[in-house]
């Protein structure tokens, strides 16, 4: 769920090995119900862009995606509505704290982990079916994504990079609160710039993650791992990815980034007007209704 993602890597970084994508996509849109109800198709095409699914894979990949969606719809969406209700209440109290935001972040991360590990059997089937030319296609897609990242977030001066990050943040805030005044934007820009800026670290993490995914797929193919072995290998990879923020060589940077991002969000909430908060409350109520309706199969 893309709720407090004020950097393109902070929460999306746990969207590994494809299957958490739809949650991120759905929660970033104004109509969750419409997007989620078409999420199986969207996820299939997203996967296809990475590996060019062939005719031998197509039918069962679609069935696996459908099975995962059925589980997710029946077991997770009411919890999402409950989490959104809690966040709505925090906003309504008018004095949301940094600790509350960090607790919400941990809750979202835990739900993303649950989805990823639930998908282990499907991921294993996919990994075991992938062919060398599909791995090559994935590497090309990764390279293109990295080039796009460099262009968007690593071009120009440090201030240019700060501005690009701030623009991404404002897209999120405007989704929640509507438009902001110039004075509000100036205060938010200052709070945004207080966050650590090191896009080289984010790029290194992206490329490390990608190399590990490719290495795993090649190992599955070359060693002809069975399903149990493949699931174990993917489980270990996912665990490694989810735990990267606590890695000794990254922990100080990631801790500072998460802490300052929470401060940034608190600043945004506290400077919003009653009208902007009402806009957010209405938006959140719509999402709560969507999650509850989806859980009922609507």
How confident is the prediction overall: mean pLDDT?
86
Order of helices and strands: HHHHHHHHHHHHHH
Q: Which descriptor suits the 3D outline?
A: globular
Radius of gyration: 20 Å
The total of helices stands at 14
Secondary structure category = mainly alpha
Helix content: over 70%
Poorly predicted runs: 1-28
Work out the count of structural domains.
Answer: 1
Biggest sheet: strands, sense, closure? none
Report the β-strand fraction as a percent range: under 5%
Task: Name a few traits of the molecule.
298 residues, mainly alpha, 14 helices, globular, disordered N terminus
Describe this structure in words.
With 298 residues, the protein is mainly α. The protein has one domain. It has helices at residues 21-27, 32-37, 39-51, 55-75, 77-93, 98-118, 120-129, 132-153, 158-177, 182-193, 199-223, 227-242, 251-271, 274-295. Residues 1-28 have low confidence and may be disordered.
Provide the fold topology.
Elements (H helix, E strand, L loop, with lengths): L20 H7 L4 H6 L1 H13 L3 H21 L1 H17 L4 H21 L1 H10 L2 H22 L4 H20 L4 H12 L5 H25 L3 H16 L8 H21 L2 H22 L3
Helix pairs in contact: 3-4, 5-14, 6-13, 7-12, 8-11, 9-10, 10-13, 11-12
What's a quick, concise take on this entry?
This protein has 298 residues and is an all-alpha fold. It has helices spanning 21-27, 32-37, 39-51, 55-75, 77-93, 98-118, 120-129, 132-153, 158-177, 182-193, 199-223, 227-242, 251-271, 274-295. It has one domain.
């Amino acid at each position: 769920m893309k709720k407090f993602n004020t950097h393109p890597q902070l929460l999306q970084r746990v969207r590994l090995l494809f299957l958490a994508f739809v949650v991120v996509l759905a929660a970033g849109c104004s109509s969750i119900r419409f997007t989620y109800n078409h999420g199986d198709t969207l996820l299939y095409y997203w996967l296809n862009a990475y590996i060019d699914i062939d005719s031998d894979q197509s039918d069962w990949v679609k069935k696996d995606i459908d099975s995962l969606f059925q589980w997710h719809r029946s077991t997770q969406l009411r919890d999402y509505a409950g989490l959104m209700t809690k966040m709505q209440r925090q906003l309504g109290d008018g004095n949301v704290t940094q600790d509350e935001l960090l607790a919400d972040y941990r809750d979202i991360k835990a739900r993303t982990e649950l989805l990823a590990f639930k998908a282990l059997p499907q991921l294993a089937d996919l990994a075991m079916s992938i062919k060398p030319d599909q791995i090559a296609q994935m590497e090309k897609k990764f390279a293109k994504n990295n080039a796009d990242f460099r262009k968007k977030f690593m071009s120009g001066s440090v201030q240019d990079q700060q501005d690009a990050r701030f623009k991404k943040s404002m897209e999120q805030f405007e989704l929640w609160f509507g438009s902001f005044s110039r004075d509000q934007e100036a205060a938010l820009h200052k709070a945004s710039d207080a966050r650590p800026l090191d896009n080289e670290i984010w790029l290194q993490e992206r490329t490390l993650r990608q190399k590990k995914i490719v290495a795993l797929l090649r190992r599955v193919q070359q060693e002809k791992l069975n399903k149990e072995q493949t699931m174990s290998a993917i489980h270990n990879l996912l665990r490694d990815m989810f735990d990267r923020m606590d890695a000794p060589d990254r922990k100080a940077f990631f801790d500072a980034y998460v802490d300052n991002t929470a401060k940034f969000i608190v600043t945004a909430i506290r400077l919003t007007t009653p009208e902007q908060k009402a806009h957010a409350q209405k938006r959140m109520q719509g999402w709560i209704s969507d999650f509850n309706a989806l859980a009922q199969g609507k």
